[in-house]
Amino acid sequence: MHIGLVGLGKMGSAMGLRLIECGHSLTVWNRTAAKAEPLVALGATLAASPCAVATACEITIVIMFDGPSVDAVFQGADNILAADLTGKLIIEMSTVRPEVEQRLAEAVALRGGALVECPVSGTLGPAREGKLVGYVGGAAADFQRAQPVLANLCRRVEFMGPSGAGSAMKLAMNLPLAVFWQALGEACALVRPLGRDPAWLIDLFAESSGGANALKGRGAMVAKALAGEDPGAANFDIDSIRKDLRTMLEQARSRGLDLPVASRALSAYDEAARAGHGKQDGATQPAFWAAKSDKAALPIRLTLERALLIAEAALRRGRDLNLAPLTVAVLDAGGHLVAFQREDNSGLLRFEIASGKAWGALGMGFGSREFLARAQANPSFVAALGAASGGRVIPVPGGVLVKAADGTVLGAVGISGDTSDNDEICVLAGIEAAGFVAQTGA
Fold it and tell me: Which domain-ending residue is among 295, 316, 336?
């Protein structure tokens, strides 16, 4: 069969090699033409554009990195939708939001063709061996037409339903694995002081109820990374995991859903990417995270990430205690708002009160619990402070200074919503969760 292939990243190239081994002829295109050379050396034809691929082939596979790159090969004068697609089938295999696939399916139909989506689970090894798992969305008749091609690439193909259904399933399938690599890193950090051999440790995890199926094939890579050895070439890198997690969160928001674990996992992967690990395999995330414990120290900056962690942990503590709806304000050392969150049904003035507690703590250089004690002892002084600050300072518990290990003031947190004592309990929980030192008094 003559098959088109648009997109020759790691997965696309592996699929191309597999299809050639299965006896198919290929016409291929990639934005960087040099990536086509291994396939061309095996007999593939390099086309000048995605439009040329779709024109030459009855069935064209598209596999790109993300939604914008998918759109880039479909839209425009030299791209797929510029071709006459009458009677042709597009198999779109990228991991994108369902609405992207739905939009493309409609656009292809207007050009006389049909599109089925089939994002896949699996990395380069399974792609080369034809052992991927595919999730198909589209019309049942078009799925039947695509099956002979997909059978060469996948050990299992599931028809999920109309356009978008396959992408929804793929996003769901990727989420537990992304979370697992981060969770495994946190687990390894807990036992790192034991000094056990990484290969032994990962083997034990694989045998336990906490070991994911991924350890069967990727455990050796994880162990090498934990030991500080070269884990080998990346199959599915951290930047790709970050892209998928962002896509999951976008899809969740569009449906009014909350994915708190995925959100926190993304923050951890973002940290790894900032440290230069973005192109390393996702299976190295446990080593990155565990190694942080070797140089564990209290953070020295109140970043947005840490401020959000404070707010989320504080609100979570309030929910655990069944408190009234809370409002949290996190200020930096200059009194600027870094993060603000409020529970549903929190009162209209709670932001001003929470900010006033934090601002007062910063202004006086001690927590608002001490501020209250001084206000009671010297009300005229506090009245003067209120006038001097334009009424911004609020001398009641719930405003707490945030400090680094060396005592440097990094900011302050204020909470309002329940009793002042309960507000303060939640502030302390948030500051502790972020790894800072809290100061409630003088």
Answer: 295
